[in-house]
Fold this protein.
Amino acid sequence: MAFLQIRQLCKYYNQQSTKAVNEFTLDIEEGEIISLLGPSGCGKTTTLRMIAGFEQPSAGSMIKNDQVIYDENTNVAPEKRSVGMVFQDFALFPHLTIEKNITFGLTKMSRQARKDRALEMLQLIGLENYAKSFPHELSGGQQQRIALARALAPKPDIVLLDEPFSNLDSSMKDQMRKDVAYMLREQKTTAIFVTHDQKDAFAISDRVIVMNQGAIQQVDHPKVMYKRPCNQFVASFVGKTNLINGIMTDDESGVMTSFGNVQLLHSSNTSPKQEVKLSIRPESCQINQQGQYSGIVSEVYYAGEYQEVRVCLNCTPEACLQGEKEEMLIRVSIEHDIELNQPISFDIMPDLIAVVNE
Ligand SMILES: Nc1ncnc2c1ncn2[C@@H]1O[C@H](COP(=O)(O)OP(=O)(O)OP(=O)(O)O)[C@@H](O)[C@H]1O
Ligand SMILES: [Mg+2]
């Protein structure tokens, strides 16, 4: 039996016609790190708050460690759920020292045990010299680590983190991702992470859950999610992609598009001659003078370590004028000099091509 079982969890606020969370069902194993990823308003925080017990579900059930924590007859209080929460704004107590912030939830321990636990947590996050400091004396990243240490100090069964990196600059974010993943794994904590940043989700988690409009779209290992998005929403939300219309070939080995046949590596649940939509990642297109596909460069965007090039495929001036052009965004390494309106040829590596549902 999974450590945390969530079944058909729903939430509607104020009798709204649309559900903030709609039939959310998921099994989480002990020690697993899960990310909820999705656009603003898709129901991530609401889901987290229902697991923590801060928000009452409208329907559904949750079982943790073989014990019902919520169903139509049961609603275990937040403080009895053994769930720690880290909020977006850290929410440290400004008038308490770092040590007192960390030991705040350790009410049942002796004074010495509390002190020892605080030191242990501070050593884990490399801030053992800050026990007597106050939160305002620490940087944002340091405060964030304290907030996590505080949540982990009582050894909760599960820790929930709501957008923990959103207040940090991008270089600090990279370090924090590593630190947080290390802390969670070191403590073997089951964790659910909320983010709308794909990089956070991918770097830190065993499985990613993509949500949209209150509903789970896909649950998968980060690499699988990237390579095999199940629908157009996931394909576009998780990284950049080209969504291309085509028709499945008779032997289902490829898809005929307006610019030629695209070979498939993986089988899909489709039938011959069916109209399909392909997701083709920009980095799966590789420039090659003798490449199978060709077009005219219509846009070049220099992104630092690579350049993004928009290619107008099989472009004729007449087709362009009639708005019939098909475009492909491709990723090109910076040693290539790419000019606007130059002809360009490329191949598509099949590994990052997926047939996606609407
Ligand atoms: N207390 C509330 N009362 C009424 N509606 C709410 C309440 N909290 C959230 N909602 C609505 O529920 C939906 C989901 O909100 P939620 O905060 O869970 O989204 P989110 O995925 O966490 O978004 P964000 O990335 O912006 O934090 C939204 O439409 C929101 O307006
Ligand atoms: Mg939120």
